[in-house]
Write the structure tokens for this entry.
Amino acid sequence: MSNKKNKIKSEITAIQGQMDAAGEKLFDLQQKLKIKDSELQDNVNRLNEAIERVDERKKSMETRLKVMYMNGMISYFDVLFSSTSFGDFIERFEALKSILEQDKRLLDSLEKDREMIAQTNLAIKQQQESLKLLLQEAERVKSELALKEKNKEVAILSLNQKEEYLEEVSEEQEKKLMALASKQAALLKARSNTSVKSSNSKLQWPLPKKYPITSNFGTRIDPITGKSGASHNGLDIGAPSGTSILAAEAGTVIVAQWWSTYGNTVVIDHGNGLWTLYPHMRMNGIKVKKGDLVKRGQLIGEVGSTGRSTGPHLHFEVRVNEKAINPESFLN
């Protein structure tokens, strides 16, 4: 029996390693998608600006031709040879020269913009195709992760005993996530409209009912490496896969994506430096997007076991000015 259990645990570890690799690939694809989408939008903006310039120049030329038609087609020679003196001739010649140069510049600019429009249209088509391929690859990796997540859950259930559902999050990834969340919070601050007035506000339990806490805030033995004294910055709540995760308070979503060892993660900014974190959501389990304004108790995701996790659970964190605080002091 012990050998069987060890074999299953080895299988779980192997699946976890595969999920880590696929998760990193998904994260890389998500970053590439953001860059490609930004480049595409820049080209669309340039295209629209060029089309506006072409329209303005065409209108200018049409107006000029209309005026010439209404006043009769006067030849440049008529203008020159109706001069009353040599000085008048020179002035008229310079004026006509200026008009011709202006017309030439207008035509040259019009031609350049038309060429730019053709090139930009081609670039947009190529970027759209590239974006399409990246999206297809991202969906493939998501499907792969969803299958591996199910395999891991089946393996955990086959241990035929109650296991504590825990996770390991690297300090490096924690710092990077805090930096990302801080940047997004600053960018979205103008759109934030939350009901939290103080970082001491009581928060709602983040699940539909009270499930058992499988790991408390503080230090513990690392569930993956077995080392003692590992820091645990939140509460692990053992809930079945797919259980609804609810916003602990109203706020603005500042992160809603895969994040390395955290897996599928949502971070909400509640104002006054108060954030709540909800990592390890299952594949396709994130139900909000960055910038969304959410209400207290609103569905934001579903329990899963993505990232460095030994089974389905909610890892719930509370941060005040990015520092991890024991969530139990904030919960009703």
